[in-house]
Automatic annotation (TrEMBL):
Pfam family, one: Spermine_synth
Xref: InterPro entries: SAM-dependent_MTases_sf
KW Cell cycle (keyword) present: no
Transmembrane domains' residue ranges: 20-42, 49-69, 89-111, 123-143, 172-196, 451-471, 483-503, 509-527, 539-561, 567-587, 599-619, 625-642
Annotated organism of origin: Streptosporangium pseudovulgare
Protein's UniProt name: Spermidine synthase
Gene3D superfamilies (alphabetical): Vaccinia Virus protein VP39
Keywords associated with the record: Membrane, Polyamine biosynthesis, Transmembrane, Transmembrane helix
Length: 648
């Protein structure tokens, strides 16, 4: 189940570009499907052939109707000038959500049928071990850069192993859709010419334009980067020269480039006379393309050192000082998986991030950033953020009004920058600087954008109808209302953990995979402790849980970032996983005492889906505020705890 869920998130996001910015919609659909699968147990004995058929149909539909995203709408979390082709998001997102639910419902039904055959916690234990195996397998394939046809072959083999019947009709119902999935993905793999990074489907095209060698790079179908010789790039677009002109010292002994990509910004720094360049890029495939195909071969230059990580993590770990720190068009075009609103580069544009950059400047050094910002208020917001971090007004050069192409430069002191004209300051109504608790640079107002609200409402309506159709009357789940709230709260707790570790250790796919695996290990540890040792009664464990939430609230991320890396890791694990462990001891004790294990587990999973919708509250209250929401939900679960369970 978990392998299939991760594969669906990665593959659908590479073809339905909306899902690059709404990755948790597939996650929510998966939770709904798994919950429905458990609730469906006992209602039919037929094998769930519908799951393999639904997966085949989903693959064919997505390959037939791919979508490019419209990111012109102000207020959402992305921006560019591309237009939509394909179904609109309010239509395609709920459809993908429903399809993911049907696909995951099948294997969940098979798992649910095993639960009555085993002790409650023994069954849950096997489920968790399987989940860890799924994460490990998909992480290994991501590391190896395996294409989706390999994912499809593994899924197809699992379907055949789990559903293989004796009759001819059943075998056809399993084999045909499995072959369709593998065949369709094989065709895509052979025709797309794509490289699969841990974040994107990367395609590229090399050609000559007016005698100049150019490499166009697209990720998930979106034009992303161009590898062009430094000389031509400097002559074509003035923004690339301005960071060097705005430095009063004009000293380039050590340069840091964050968002080095395929290497053009590195080549420009070398052309400007940099003696040493540290090039930081989060995506290993983009860096490899630049190393092999960039016309200037900047990554082969002995003056260049490359580091594959995200920029904020590098700034928090390195002790080096620089004459120039450059944020070179860092725009990830995707979100951190499992965190509904956090982009890979979100923590790079906060006030704390620019303060970290300031602290890594040599005397006389400068910080600069450039991009196409689409909206004037984005330029004002970033300039105001630089002003707050450096203590004086930066240089602001709007190179082109079309797309708001702008360069923002701040010297360590005001005398260290040489502005063409003084920045007038942020316009009235410009949003304040973003911070590490609400790192939503592209969200102008403290609100949930309409596109999210409408789509989430549609998802909840579909979910209510699906639960009623599959599971029957809602009163069947009424005794497990507390388990439903436990699922809601735990999803918020998991989101806070994912975003917290992304800030402390980086938004890379490795950190993300380790955090998800760590959450499952904490859950498994709670189950094992509950199975093997006497544990305090539920009221006491609820007290421990709430104490853990208070501790997580009291320990600020800024303090953790100031600790040495080993101590930071130990402290962060204790602070983050104490409430997770306590929450799962609560769940394990309550689940072991439930009368109907499959219904109880299904109610909990449906709660996790609702929690995935509630995590968008972070856009309003911040990620730290999710701890308060989770605490209120846990209090609600305790209030709904049956008297018999509380007494036990």
């Amino acid at each position: 189940m978990l392998f299939l869920e991760l594969a669906l998130i990665r593959w659908t996001g590479s073809n339905i570009v909306h899902l690059s910015y709404f990755t948790n919609f597939v996650l929510l659909g998966s939770f709904l499907g798994i919950g429905l699968g458990f609730l469906r147990v006992g209602r039919t004995a037929r094998p769930p052939y519908y799951s393999a058929i639904a997966l085949a149909v989903l693959v064919l539909v997505i390959l037939r109707f791919p979508v490019t995203v419209d990111r012109d709408t102000e207020g959402v979390l992305y921006w560019t000038s591309l237009n939509t082709s394909g179904p609109p998001p309010w239509l395609i997102l709920p459809l993908i959500f429903a399809a993911a639910a049907v696909v995951l419902m099948g294997p969940a039904e098979l798992v649910g049928r095993c639960f009555p055959e085993l002790d409650r916690l023994e069954a849950y234990r096997y489920d968790l071990v399987g989940s860890l195996t799924g994460i490990a397998l998909f992480t290994a394939l991501s590391f190896l850069g395996a294409p989706p046809v390999v994912w499809g072959m593994i899924a197809a083999a699992a379907y055949v192993a789990l559903l293989w019947p004796r009759g001819l009709g059943g075998r056809v119902a399993v084999l045909v859709p499995s072959l369709v999935v593998v065949g369709a993905l094989a065709v895509e793999t052979l025709t797309a010419g794509a490289l699969w990074s841990p974040y994107y489907k990367v395609t590229y095209d090399r050609f000559l334009w007016q005698g100049v060698p150019v490499m166009d790079i697209q990720v998930n179908g979106i034009p992303h980067q161009q590898a062009i010789p430094a000389r031509e790039r400097l002559s074509w677009e003035r923004q690339y020269a301005l960071p060097y002109e705005r430095s009063a010292a004009h000293r380039l002994d050590d340069v840091l480039i964050v968002g080095a990509g395929s290497g053009t910004d590195v080549a420009i720094a070398l052309a400007k006379g940099a003696k040493h360049v540290d090039a930081v890029e989060i995506d290993p495939r983009l860096r490899e393309l630049g190393e092999i195909y960039h016309p200037d071969r900047p990554y082969a230059d002995p003056r260049v050192t490359t580091v594959v990580t995200d920029g904020r993590a590098y700034l928090e770990r390195t002790a080096r000082k620089y004459d120039l720190i450059l944020f070179a068009l860092p725009d990830s075009l995707t979100l951190v998986s499992g965190a509904g609103s956090l982009r890979l580069e979100s923590y790079l544009f906060t006030r704390q991030a620019m303060e970290a950059a300031r602290d890594h400047l040599k005397p006389g050094g400068t910080f600069s950033m450039y991009n196409y910002y689409r909206e004037g208020w984005l330029v004002d917001r970033l300039a105001a953020t630089a002003q707050a971090a450096f203590g004086h007004r930066p240089c602001v050069d709007v190179v082109s009004q079309a797309g708001q192409q702008a360069v923002i430069t701040a010297g360590l002191a005001a005398a260290d920058q040489s502005c063409g004209a003084e920045w007038a300051g942020a316009a009235a109504g410009a949003p304040p600087p973003s911070d590490d608790d609400r790192p939503f640079l592209y969200l102008k107002d403290r609100t949930i954008p309409q596109i999210y609200v409408v789509t989430l409402i549609l998802i909840l309506i579909v979910s209510l109808l699906a639960v009623r159709a599959v599971a029957g009357p809602y009163r069947r789940m009424r005794p497990y209302a507390d388990l439903f709230l436990l699922g809601v709260a735990f999803m918020l707790l998991e989101t806070k953990s994912v975003t917290g570790f992304a800030l402390l250790f980086g938004t890379t796919w490795v950190v993300n995979a380790v955090v998800f695996a760590g959450v499952l290990v904490a859950v498994l540890a709670a189950v094992e402790v509950t199975r093997r040792f006497p544990t305090p009664p539920l009221p006491v464990m609820y007290g421990v849980l709430l104490a853990g939430l208070v501790l997580a609230w009291l320990v600020p991320s800024s303090w953790l970032l100031g600790l040495p890396l080993p101590l930071r890791a130990v402290t962060a694990v204790v602070v983050a996983f104490l409430p997770i462990f306590a929450a799962n001891v609560v769940f394990a004790k309550r689940f072991a005492d439930s009368h109907d294990g499959t219904t109880a587990f299904g109610a909990n999973l449906l709660g996790a889906m609702a929690g995935g919708c509630l995590e968008y509250l972070a856009l309003v209250v911040g990620y730290r505020g999710l701890l308060i929401v989770a605490g209120l939900l846990y209090l609600g679960a305790f209030a709904l705890l049956p008297r018999r369970a509380a007494a036990a």
